[in-house]
Design brief:
The protein is mostly helical. The chain is about 55% helix and about 5% strand. It binds adenosine monophosphate (AMP).
């Protein structure tokens, strides 16, 4: 994840919830993609390190446990950059120009043609982040799926050009892989439409009450379409035990949007209240968070070095142990 500071509920229901579960079953590496943050925010780096700590505190707060997984910082494992360079040689620019994520970003940011070289190469760096650990599953939100597709293409190309080194990874999505913001667009920091994991209760209530619902349900008694309603998607994401009743009552015009939103707001407040004490344990303990990240990056680096050596040898760009004539 790019270090954008405090996480929002889109991050939680879209990804973090999955991470907490996966760390029990898989050998997981979770990374702070600080170089990726530069692709769009290279002008303003003042808060970058603060954002790293804030973000990782939220990870720890929701239950990511450094005893069970590796937490690392991309730029502390420079092998990612070298593998990115090697991958950039075998990646046609057309793959990157066709990337729908980039197209959407350019539209949102009004950038048009002024895309930076690093920004265009975002998926190549991401492929390196993934493949350097030979990961076969990547738990991301739906917006990242095209990047996983490019990662697979890069792995396939490398393996067929040189030798089988990399797996072809699959995206792992949650049941809510795309959480919408209060304005109905994808929840995102840059669109200012998010509910933060640290949102004060009054703001949660205000934001939920201002959410878009099914446009065809104007009056309380109108039959609703829960599948088109963002508030209903929040009920689903928070695993509301009354989901079936809410769905039924909405469809039959027995439940109005105001009551439904009030119920949602209180659920969300209770959910966030459960998280904050865990997160508060790390407040003022920035040093501890730093140590976790240094130690994780050290461990990650050992693995990354092994894969990079393998990639270099496969490409015959290896002048190590066996000398220039090495195999
Ligand atoms: P970002 O903050 O864009 O670097 O995203 C970090 C991770 O959170 C990525 O795996 C995204 O796919 C995921 N993510 C971000 N926003 C959302 C959202 N609104 N719904 C679901 N997943 C999201």
């Amino acid at each position: 994840m790019r270090p954008t500071g405090r996480m929002h509920i889109g991050h939680y229901f879209g990804v973090l919830k999955n991470w907490v579960k996966l760390q029990e079953e898989y050998d997981c590496v979770f990374g702070v993609a600080d170089w990726h943050a530069l692709t769009t925010s290279f002008e303003d780096t003042e808060n970058l390190t603060k954002n790293v700590v804030e973000m990782v505190m939220d990870w720890l707060g929701v239950g990511i446990d450094p005893e069970k997984c590796i937490l690392m910082i991309q730029s502390l494992v420079p092998e990612h950059a070298e593998l990115h360079l090697l991958f950039s040689m075998i990646t046609p620019v057309g793959w990157l120009e066709r990337n729908p994520v980039l197209k959407q970003q350019l539209q949102d940011m009004g950038l048009k043609e002024a895309v930076g070289y690093g920004h265009l190469g975002y998926p190549v760096l991401m492929a390196s982040d993934i493949l350097i650990y030979k990961a076969n599953k990547v738990p991301v939100g739906e917006d990242q799926v095209p990047h996983i597709e490019i990662t697979r293409e890069i792995a396939r190309r490398f393996n067929s050009l040189y030798r089988e080194v990399f797996p072809e990874p699959q995206a792992l999505l949650t049941e809510s892989p795309r959480i919408l913001g209060i304005d109905g667009r994808k929840m995102s920091k840059s669109l200012q439409n998010y509910i933060s994991l640290s949102e004060p209760s009054e703001d949660v209530r205000r934001k939920v009450m201002s959410m878009f619902t099914d446009p065809e349900k104007v009056y309380k008694n109108d039959p609703g379409h829960p599948e088109r309603c963002n508030v209903f998607s929040f009920h689903k994401a928070t695993e509301n035990e009354n989901l079936l009743a809410i769905e039924d009552d909405c469809r039959r015009g027995k439940l109005g949007c105001v009551a439904c939103k009030k119920d949602m707001a209180e659920r969300m407040v209770r959910f966030l209240e459960k998280i904050s004490p865990h997160r508060d344990r790390y407040v003022g303990k920035e040093k501890l968070v730093e140590e976790i990240l240094f130690e994780g990056s050290r461990k990650a680096r050992l693995r990354a070095q092994a894969t990079l050596n393998e990639a270099r040898r496969a490409m015959r760009i290896d002048y190590g142990g066996e000398g220039f004539s090495g195999k």
